[in-house]
Amino acid sequence: MNATQVDLSPLVRLDRLAPALAAALHDERWRHLDATLLAGGKSNLTFEITSEAGSVVLRRPPSGALLPRAHDMGREARVQRALKDTAVPVAAVLLEDLAGELIGAPFYVMEKVPGHVVRASFPPGYADTAADRPALADALVDVLVALHAVGPAEAGLADFGRPTGFLERQVRRWQGQWAKSKTRDVPALDELGAGLAAALDKVGVPRSSIVHGDFRLDNCLLDLADPGHVAAVLDWELSTLGDPMTDLGLLLFYWREAGESVSPLTPTVTTGTGFPGRAYLAERYAAATGAPLDHLAFYEAFAHFKFAVIVQGIAARVAAGAMAGQDFGNLDAEVVRCAEEGMARLGQQGH
After folding, report:
1. Global pTM?
2. Exposure check for the chain: N or C terminus, fewer CB within 10 A?
3. What is the pLDDT of residue 80?
4. Positive or negative, the Cα torsion across 145, 289, 166, 293?
C-alpha cells in the first residue's frame, strides 16, 4: 500500500474538523490535529485522528462516484449508538456530520477502543497458548449470537430494515451491484447469482434479527490481553434487519482452514495451528441459538457471491483513484475464484 504518498488533507479537512471536535469533546487540545489513514479499510476510509488529548477514529466514504446506497455513514453511526448499552461491544460515537458540510463528505468520529485487529498474523506473544485459539473462535461466535439476540425494537432499530423478503432483495441487490461495477464478463458469477435466486424458495422463511453484514475476525477488535474477548465490533456499513444466517455464512466464508486458499484482501490467521474448523463454529452458533443448519451451504454460497461483487467494487474504486492511494493488486482472479467456489458450495446444498 502506498497511501503515505497521497495528500490526505482534502479527505479529512483538519482545519474544519478540529474546532468541531474541540466543541464536541469540550477540550481545546483537539484544535491541533494529525490524521493517519489506517490500513485495511477497502470500502469506507478509516483515519486515526490524534491530538495532545488522545486519539479518535474517523470514518468517511471513499472519494469519487459511489454506488447507490453504499457507504452510508448514517447507518454505521446509528447502529453503534443503538448497541452501545447491549451485550454487543461497540465504539461510542462522538461526532457525526451526515450532510457532509464539514469536510465535504458524510462522516462520523468514534472513540478509539484499545485492541488488536488481527489479519495475517498475531502480535508477538499474543494468542500463543493451546487454549487461546479455540477461545478466540468461541468469542467471535458468542458476539454474533449476542448481536442476533438483540431485539430491534428494544434497541430503537425497528425501522432499520425490512426483514420480510430480505434474502430475495439481497440476491437482487448484489446482482445489481455486480452489473454496475463489473468491467468484464465472469460467467461463473452470473451463474452463481442465478443459482442463488433459483434456490430461494427451498430455504423457507428465515429468522430475522439485526445483522452486521460483514462479520469476520478482522472486523473485530480483540482485547489487548485476552484473545478470548472481543473489545469492539467494527465496520457496520452493511448492517440492517434481515436473516442472521447470512452473518454466519460470511463468518464461515472468511474462516479459512489449513491448506485452503486465502484472499489477498482478507489475510487471516485461521489457517494456522490450533484453530477449530468451520463446522465447530457453526455447531456452536446452532447450539446457542437453536438455529437449524439445513441450508447452511446456501448461506455460504451467498457469502461467496457477495464477496466476489465486493472485490469487483474495490477493484473499480482503486482503478478510479478513489481509495486514497491504496492498491490491492490485480483482483480479477479473486472474483473468479470466489464465484467458482460459491458454485461448488451451492451444489453441496443439493439445490
Report:
1. 0.90
2. N
3. 98
4. positive
